[in-house]
Specification:
The complex is a heterodimer. In chain A, 35% of the residues lie in helices and 25% in strands. By secondary structure, chain A is of the alpha+beta class. Chain A has an eight-stranded antiparallel beta sheet with strand order 14-13-10-11-12-15-22-20, with helices on both faces. Chain A is globular, with a radius of gyration of 23 Å. The two termini of chain A are 39 Å apart. By secondary structure, chain B is an all-beta fold. Chain B starts with a strand and ends with a strand. The radius of gyration of chain B is 20 Å and the shape is elongated. The chains are: A alpha+beta, B mainly beta. Chains A and B meet through helix 8, strand 17, helix 12, strand 23 and helix 16 of A and strand 1, strand 2, strand 3, strand 4 and strand 6 of B.
Chain lengths: 502, 124
């Protein structure tokens, strides 16, 4: 990265992380490489997580309930100050797109690793955002974004826009507070559901309406700005494989864009970012139908799926975020951004795919990540840690990189097959079905892919004869002396680890 | 976790296994499965609410809304209970034509996995 010695650079020596799980680990790794101390701001139960063990320092900021810990602005700011931090990284989710939090950090004299509160505010309010980007010449989906939130007016606007239609939380993101009404009779129920989720997740139940463009593709552009006014893009990701508007599989680049379309969309993405003088990493999301594309929203933060962009460009977005927050010029010029190969990310959710994705909680007993070239694992739990129902069920991400899309899919399938997670059920079988599906293989999948092909999750299959034989053998050879408490207790003392696989 | 090797007529196949209090986890031929203790029958696939007129909670969570009203007629797809876990909402729907016989929960209740939420009477 750039080494710049200028007086106005604000040095970060201690960075507080207002987040948890795999993204907290991701930020800690970036800090380690930059020679910065990491301070984890965590809830009470999260003492038993990987990020807690890896951080240089940690401060408990409250109980398990997010509203009293990870969503509590004052607790995070006070925790950061108490530990002597000079900056805060919000990760994604929680307070990452909360302008009041960014402002509270600045007011306390802390550097906020992200855009200005003004940019977060404008893009976070989906109504303002739509008006701003429309002015910048970016195409929009038809919708209603008025202040009148009465049931009657919303229902009338819904009929005007036409069904199917999306009800979205004005302050929303990440699939929360977002519902689809396929016909008028569903509208009221979905509206109430969207308002409830929005109120719980974002503290506001204001919604806006958008026509639901069916069989569209979700294409998003990674953008990056610095304090000198430079804004560039790092090409697109396709995230069409979504369930209940939560992404499951993401890839870079999209199999659906040609150079002409890519150029047009990337220009719009940069324009959208420039409209709010964007600083740091951000994502401009579009819906693509044929060769028509529409602005969906801009996420003013690091994205869960940022690793696929990192893999194809050979960059480190988190380190760049921290550098830019200190006032450094962007480490790359637009012409340096040349993608190479293909990358796919699979999100591992703690859930039972054979029971339509019902969350699975419990203690992680064993983990095995098959190592090899172009395989990357981002995770927030070690064996012995508990996956609770307090937080998101995404427990890990598997990212693979290979020369082309076909090889990448093959690698992802192999890695998923060789990955072992004991203790909670996961969606790994489901991910394999997705990657094996002809629509995914052809690259023609749309955001309706999951609801069309896997409406009920997976059907349980009969165990093979060999599997049953293996189970019987396993049951016999695992005598009571080799149950969890003994064999898989965390190893104490480094010498034990050294002998393990000899 | 223990590596275990199975001899089959087609050659040697190996996998991993681990036993905990409730059952045995195995990873075999690229697939992870959990076998619950009781005589080796698998939990997977056996729905918590196997009976269509008994709506059980499929997970631990919080009840957000109860559209089901005792005595009301329901058809397949009608929402009965809306609940939340891991910050997501789930709607439990009726699989059958029938009437609501009993509602065992109200808004704000915390429920465990398998708790009875609503019972229906199927129309024949």
């Amino acid at each position: 990265l750039v080494t710049e010695k200028e007086d106005y650079l604000k040095a970060i020596r201690k960075l507080a992380i207002a987040n948890r799980g795999e993204v907290a680990v991701r930020i800690i790794r970036a800090c380690e490489e930059l020679g910065i101390e990491s301070i984890l701001l965590h809830s009470e139960p999260d003492q038993n997580t990987r990020a807690y063990r890896l951080a240089t320092k940690s401060v408990c900021i409250g109980p398990a309930t997010s509203s009293q810990s990870y969503l509590n602005i004052q607790a995070n700011v006070q925790g950061a100050l108490a530990a002597g931090a000079d900056a805060v990284h919000p990760g994604f989710g929680f307070l990452s797109e909360n302008a009041d939090f960014a402002q509270a950090c600045l007011d306390a004299g802390l550097i906020f690793v992200g855009p200005t509160p003004d940019a977060i505010q404008k893009m976070g309010d989906k109504v303002t955002a739509r008006a701003l980007v429309e002015k910048a010449g970016v195409p929009l989906v038809p919708g209603y974004q008025g202040d009148d939130q009465s049931d009657i007016v919303l229902k009338k606007e819904a009929s005007r826009i036409g069904y199917p239609l999306m009800i979205k939380a004005t302050a929303g993101g990440g699939g929360r507070g977002l519902k689809v009404a396929y016909q008028e009779s569903e509208f009221q129920l979905q509206l109430e559901s969207a308002r409830r989720e929005a109120l719980n997740a974002f503290g506001s139940d204001q919604v806006f309406l958008e026509r639901y463009i069916e069989n569209g593709k979700h294409i998003e552009f990674q953008v990056f700005g610095d304090t000198k006014g430079n804004v560039i893009h790092l090409n697109e990701r396709e995230c069409s494989v979504q369930r209940r508007h939560q992404k499951i599989v993401e890839e870079a680049q999209s199999p659906s864009l040609n150079d002409h379309l890519r150029k047009k969309m990337s220009e719009c993405a940069v324009k959208a970012a420039q409209a709010v003088s964007y600083v740091g990493a951000g994502t401009v999301e579009f819906l693509l139908k044929g060769d028509q594309f529409y602005f969906l929203e801009m996420n003013t933060r690091l994205q869960v799926e940022h690793p696929v962009t990192e893999e194809i460009h050979g960059v480190d977005l988190v380190k760049a975020q921290i550098q830019v927050a200190q006032g450094y010029t962007l480490p790359w010029k637009q012409e340096d951004i040349v993608p190479k190969g293909h990358s796919i990310e699979c999100r591992i959710y703690a859930e039972d795919p054979y029971m339509n994705g019902v969350p699975s909680t419990g203690k992680i007993l064993s983990l095995l990540w098959p190592e090899g070239k172009g395989r990357r694992y981002e995770y927030g739990f070690d064996p012995g840690d508990e996956v609770t129902s307090f937080y998101d069920s995404m427990i890990a991400k598997i990212i693979v990189h290979d020369e082309n899309r076909e090889m990448c899919i093959q690698k992802a399938l192999r890695v998923l097959s060789d990955t072992v997670i004991f203790g909670v059920k996961t969606n790994i079988d489901y991910l394999k079905e997705i990657l094996n599906h002809s629509e995914f293989r052809n690259g023609t999948m749309s955001t309706a892919f999951i609801s069309k092909n896997f409406p009920e999750g997976l059907k349980a299959k009969e165990s093979s004869k060999d599997e049953l034989a293996f189970y019987e053998l396993a049951k016999q050879s695992l005598s009571d002396s080799s149950t969890v408490s003994q064999s898989d207790a965390p190893l104490k003392g480094a010498f034990q680890i050294a002998w393990r696989n000899v | 976790m223990k590596r275990i090797t199975l001899e089959t007529p087609l050659g040697i196949k190996s996998g991993y296994a681990l036993k905990d209090r409730t059952g045995v986890w195995i990873h075999f031929e690229g697939k992870t499965s959990f076998y619950e203790n009781q005589d080796g029958s698998k939990r997977r696939g056996k729905k918590a609410n196997a009976s269509k007129d008994q709506i059980d909670s499929p997970m631990p969570g919080k009840i957000l809304k109860v559209p089901a009203v005792v005595g009301a007629n329901v058809k397949p797809g009608d929402p009965l209970v809306v609940m939340e876990a891991m910050k997501m909402e789930y709607t439990l729907k009726s699989d059958i034509f029938g009437t609501v016989k009993a509602v065992k929960v109200k808004e704000g209740d915390q429920v465990t996995r398998g708790a009875l939420l609503v019972s229906l009477e199927e129309k024949k």
